[in-house]
Design brief:
single chain; 196 residues; alpha+beta; 4 helices
């Protein structure tokens, strides 16, 4: 009797269709190499994968939080994630690495692809892709994300980051930096009649 090989062993490394479809949709929103804007997203255009899609907002260097979240990620982690930082979903040893990858995603800009496994003695393997986007003000501060779980993966409370890669966007147009004025009341002010 010959050796029996599973076809699944050969295709396991291929991205699940949700990642391909969402990535192709994000790519279709780019105009002349620019990152797409948050306002360009149309939920109906991702209807088949909305349960796996989420939207992140930049809150600091290398840090993002959930603005919108599909049911798959909430089910995997057993909680509503809106407002939570993405880093909170990862075990502590991986958070600094994640922060650097997030910043690279915004600054290069680049697509971030990650392979994850369940932490805290849970079992399961997952793939997460992140695509940088512009806010409606034109700054690179939003991310479209998608999470898929391999067959048989169960719930977990934390992820481990097993592998990550970034694909720089060829011809990407860097958005102009928005200079924000200093808030009023900072520094010294000249007061008429004040003592020397």
């Amino acid at each position: 009797m010959g050796v029996v090989l599973s076809l699944a062993d050969f295709i396991k490394g291929a991205p699940p269709s949700a990642l391909q479809d969402v990535g192709a949709y994000w790519q279709s929103l780019r105009v002349d190499g620019a990152l797409p804007k948050r306002s360009d997203l149309r939920p109906k255009d991702m209807a088949d994968h909305l349960d796996k899609v989420f939207l992140l907002e930049r809150i600091g260097t290398g840090h993002v939080r959930f603005r919108l979240c599909g049911s798959v990620l909430c089910d995997v982690l057993g909680m509503d994630l809106r407002g939570m930082p993405l880093s909170a979903l990862f075990e502590m040893p991986y958070r600094n690495q994640l922060s650097g990858l997030i910043e690279e995603c915004f600054q290069r800009p680049a697509i971030l692809q990650m392979r994850l496994s369940a932490g805290w003695s849970a079992t399961g393997n997952y793939r997460m892709n992140l695509w940088p986007m512009l806010s409606d003000l034109g700054d690179a501060s939003r991310i479209l994300g998608c999470l898929v779980a391999d067959d048989g993966s169960g719930p977990t409370k934390r992820f481990r980051l097993d592998h990550a890669s970034t694909d720089a966007l060829c011809g990407a147009v860097h958005p102009p930096k928005i200079e924000k004025p200093a808030p009023l009341g900072t520094g010294f002010e000249l007061i008429d009649g004040g003592a020397d």
